[in-house]
Amino acid sequence: MIRGDGSSINPTGYDIGMNDRLTKLLALHQADPSDTFCTYALAMEAAKLGRADEAIGWLDKTIALDANQAYAYYHKAKLLAEMDRRADALKTLDEGLAAARRSGDDKALAELNDLAGLLEA
Predict the structure, then answer these.
(1) Structure pTM?
(2) Number of domains in the chain
(3) Which residues of the chain have pLDDT under 70?
């Protein structure tokens, strides 16, 4: 949604500015709000731009759409840790580990375990 000042608001309520990639991804999201690839891509783009809160909002949406998206938990935990929210990051990692086990994603399971080990050290 474009506001009068030229900036945009995404469905999570965070200001996204007029970044082309974000604008295109938002258009895709509006066309299919249940597309977890799109919500995940929006999260990664927001994180790349240093918009951690916005990225976490999109990762939460991804997880709400598909609780087995183990890498959404991984990236959310990583962002939380970078924000000095260690307890929240560890809780998110526990949820991600359960998701990886449910989905049989051994690669994600290993990466989540590695990140947990770093945070617990």
Answers:
(1) 0.83
(2) 2
(3) 1-18
